[in-house]
Amino acid sequence: MGVKQSVLLLLGVMGMVACSDKIDKSIEDRPKNRYTALTFVNVLDDDVRFYLQPQVMIGDVFQDKYQATELLKNDYSHYRYGWNDDHDNTTFGVRDNNSNTKKRKLDARVKDGGRTWVVAWMRGSEYELSVFDKSPRNQNNRITLRVLASVDMDIALNGIVVSRAKSGVVSNHISLEHCSGSLSLANHPIDLCQQDYGRSYLIVADKNGLRVVVDE
Known about the structure:
Low-confidence stretches: 3-18
Structural class: mainly beta
């Protein structure tokens, strides 16, 4: 490739970058008229950063300006996300803090006025993201829960299998009368006595059992 061709190619690339930046800026400047409450949950084996942007943006989601939160492993945080209804789909991303090479992104639609889980978890050695609606189902004098498992596993109450969680698929609601000794996941007993009766929770688990419990 000659010098002239190289210069023209470089100018073309610079022009495309400038154009994409202008498009992204015009989207960012649109008034926000839709909002949802997100809860980010990190069940990866690393400390990570979560990112999000309207899906129509051209620039990479893994930029500092799109960072929503930074979480240690087995931690969670809440975030209020606003967007313009012309751009309803959202790109979510998660990336490790150390090497910045392990990452995952996912396009999903969130509801205006909704409450949404954004869970990062391990599928073997790979990062995964799950985005789904919260669904509390509070019952007096009982603990209600759903399970998101990284591997297929049995859910048992009082030693009897009542459901089988599928990898990456949130389970149906399960309710308990006793916080200790009644629930087991993949034959691992789960103690929920730090949680409150009359409330609903999301449990995230792996092959070794419980990783995180978060209030729905």
